[in-house]
Design a protein that fits this description.
158 residues, alpha+beta, 3-stranded antiparallel sheet, 4 helices, 6 strands, elongated
Amino acid sequence: MQIDPSALEQSAQRVGKAWIRWVWCLQLMAGLALLGLSYVLGAERYPLLLRGEVVQGQLLRYERLPPDQTQAERYRVYVAFIHDGRLYQFADWNLLRVRGGVAKQPTVIYDPVDPTLAMLDRGTWRNALPWLPPALVGVFLLLVGLRSGWKARSAECA
């Protein structure tokens, strides 16, 4: 049985074109999934970065948490700050591997409307973790998917 190379090549081109024609759907779904993940991860912290106010806080304590699967120690930081003459306390969302590393009077970002929502100010890039990287990749995939979908639809109409 002899296989005709030109027929095989034509078949591969047809399959490749069909795959390329629909890969934009995968790009859109992956982009939307990453944007959804980013929303879940940053739903509390992103509004603080947009409209939050900054105040000096007071380090209260470190709480040692039970070891996780890697048997590593973890610590949760508790901080207090004053807003409108009232004392607010919160536990920072970011767990630490070592005790220490947070200043005695750390900078706190809080929501002036709801001061119970607060976080430690860790600097511009570290405040945006962990939600910014999946958001950027999600936006990129969404834009590429829309562009590819537009091109695929234009090619079908032509």
